[in-house]
Model the fold of this input.
Amino acid sequence: MGSYSFFADRPIDQYKKSDVGFSVAVILMLGFGLFTLYFCSQNYAARIFDDSFYFFRRQFICVLVGLLGFLILALMPLKTVRKFLPIITVFTLVICILTFVPGLSVEKNGARRWIKMPMNFTLQSSEVVKFTIIIYLANYFDKQMNISVKENRNVLNAVLVMLLFITLVLLQKDFSTSIFLFVFCCIFFWACGMKIRWIWFIGFLASLAFAYFLLSEEYRIERIISFLNPNERLDSGNYQSMAAKRAISAGGFWGAGIGSKLVQSNRIPEVQADYIFASWAEAMGFGGVICYFAMLGFFAWRGLKIALECKNRFAAFGAFGFISMIIFQTLINCGVVCGALPSTGIPLPFFSLGGSSIIITLCMCGFVVNASRCDSEDNDDIYDEYVELESIDGVESYE
Done:
């Protein structure tokens, strides 16, 4: 009976080591994120659930799932990833539609964005969309780049898929994420070298749609008014924002300390979610904030370096998209916490409580690690040729 190996053998000269610096950056961000989640949520968890580890435990379970996804995407051949792309796209489309099915979805504050999962966990479909839309566009752009005549390149299918997913997210009443995805995808089109003459027309139609959805919900209008008048509505619309600012100010330069009670952060509703950065700032102070952005800068540098040096175009596009999305999302969240942007539901990667977010973030990082090992544009073809020669001639090496 023949032996089976999940990853077939390759000649030694086909291997390339993963980027250790990026892996270290991921571990640092993940470790500090879990640490911050625990010390900022322990008092609230103990008061509500009589268990100071409640939020930490649930997040840790999702981290384990995310690490599994990280390893799979870091080790799986990119050719296999591309083969699974249709399945990934259909799966994402299905779970987006399932959020509209009562009984299968979870409704919170009038919005249906989550699907019920075992053990009282939920899956947020918009987080899965973030992963799928980037890897789909990376694959599509790579194929279009293979067309030598630029006039024959077509981005219509990519635009339609992008608008389909964004529309589904918008209909889930996830207004902030839909705008985030639209703006980021337009930037991604431009960064990948696609012609965006159509963007003005699409942007005009999208602006009308977003304006309609903005004006159709009273709480969205109140968020804009509160943002434009930060010294008013301190007991309602601006309460969370002002509480976050007080927490950041209370941290001073050295911070209140990890072991102390974070008085100001405890006054922020659901601080363990979108406003967790305020808790970090209060505990660690200005020095801690500098350290955080230093870690983020190191993460961005290693990730973008991988994307820019990768010779496999699909891997390069995907790595660039994933790293840019994580950084873009981080800056938006920090801007909201500091009061520079209106309140949104954009979580802080690696830090905010949210199983779907941390799982997808780790899967993105796994893909980037995979891209760091790509040393040839046509490495898949070389590998296929090697396997074919080995099966026919019984050779043990390929030169």
